[in-house]
């Protein structure tokens, strides 16, 4: 079965290059219903996308630019924003112009319909899939889960350690792994924190007596929460002139698995602008039925149960 990927994953693959190396190869792709990718060069005044196939030019008519354009449920910005970026499509035919040049007629909508039918409609909660961040909002990140079809990753599902904005974890264009949180009527909601490791897996990277780097996440009257990793934060004693978002050097005073606590002492803090790096994943499988964050001997259990039955 054909595998579906976020838009942009195919364009530099040997398979895509082979399928666009000649007009006859593009014709074969048309016959076989093969999804291809090319770079959108221009969005004309009628909002048709002109695409570079390498061996020839292609055109995606406006109504074929995305799911929902024809019905009026998707705005034209979904087409305009693809200029100078890879687009996926099916080749639906060819048009010979008066000067003898041949233009391939393409449909991004048809590629998305195929992806929706054969891939996205079969996803169930707990499935782990590849995604690519498309844009960031205060409430979460949007990610392409196949052929330019976008799903929401809410901010509270990005990591166990709380953040103020998704830009603290992701950049637009970053490739990530996600887990399906819910799938109802092909409307997908994603999660991410379950792939970043349990409390035990994260705390195993640290030892009492070490001084390590962290990020101040919250300053409370009773202490200061410092992130040691995206799925692990410790509590430091109060200290003056410490603010959320600062980098910190912290001494690990003690690690208490039963209480799921890491006690810290802040050595120093400083302002520093950092760029998010690719997440480190502890789970490498394709499906999660249940994720238990808390250690076995913890006083309370923190877990995510995924509904493994499709709606």
UniProtKB/TrEMBL annotation:
Per the record, what is one GO cellular component?
Answer: ribonucleoprotein complex
Residues covered by the S1 motif domain: 126-193, 209-240
Q: Which CDD domains match?
A: S1_like (cd00164)
Q: Which InterPro entries match?
A: NA-bd_OB-fold, Ribos_protein_bS1-like, S1_domain
Listed GO MF terms: mRNA binding; structural constituent of ribosome
Q: Which BP terms does GO give this entry?
A: translation
Keywords of this protein's UniProt record, alphabetized? Answer: Ribonucleoprotein, Ribosomal protein
Pfam families on file = S1
The similarity annotation says: Belongs to the bacterial ribosomal protein bS1 family.
Q: What is this protein called?
A: 30S ribosomal protein S1
Please report the organism this UniProt entry assigns to the protein: Caproicibacter fermentans
């Amino acid at each position: 079965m054909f595998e579906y990927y976020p838009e942009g994953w195919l364009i530099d693959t040997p398979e895509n290059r082979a399928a666009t190396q000649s007009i006859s190869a593009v014709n074969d792709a048309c016959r076989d219903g093969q999804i291809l990718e090319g770079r959108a060069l221009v969005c004309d005044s009628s909002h048709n996308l002109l695409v570079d196939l390498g061996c020839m030019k292609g055109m995606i008519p406006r109504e074929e630019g995305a799911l929902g354009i024809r019905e009026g449920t998707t705005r034209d910005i979904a087409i305009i924003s693809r200029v100078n970026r890879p687009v996926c499509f099916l080749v639906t035919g060819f048009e010979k112009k008066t000067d003898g040049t041949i233009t391939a007629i393409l449909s991004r909508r048809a590629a998305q319909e195929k992806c929706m039918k054969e891939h996205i409609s079969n996803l169930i909660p707990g499935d782990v899939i590849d995604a690519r961040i498309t844009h960031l909002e205060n409430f979460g990140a949007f990610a392409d889960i196949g052929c330019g079809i976008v799903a929401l990753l809410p901010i509270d599902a990005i990591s166990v350690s709380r953040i103020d904005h998704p830009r603290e974890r992701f950049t637009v264009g970053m490739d990530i792994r996600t887990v399906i949180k819910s799938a109802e009527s092909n409307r997908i909601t994603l999660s991410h924190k379950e792939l970043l490791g349990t409390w035990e897996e994260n705390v195993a990277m640290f030892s009492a007596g070490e001084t390590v780097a962290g990020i101040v996440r919250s300053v409370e009257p009773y202490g200061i929460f410092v992130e040691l990793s995206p799925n692990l934060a410790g509590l430091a004693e109060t200290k003056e002139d410490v603010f959320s978002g600062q980098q910190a050097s912290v001494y690990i005073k003690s690690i208490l698995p039963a209480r799921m606590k890491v006690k810290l002492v802040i050595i120093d803090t400083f302002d520093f602008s950092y760029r998010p790096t690719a997440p480190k994943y502890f789970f490498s499988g394709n499906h999660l039925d249940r994720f238990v964050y808390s250690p076995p001997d913890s006083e309370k259990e923190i877990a995510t149960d995924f509904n493994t039955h499709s709606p």
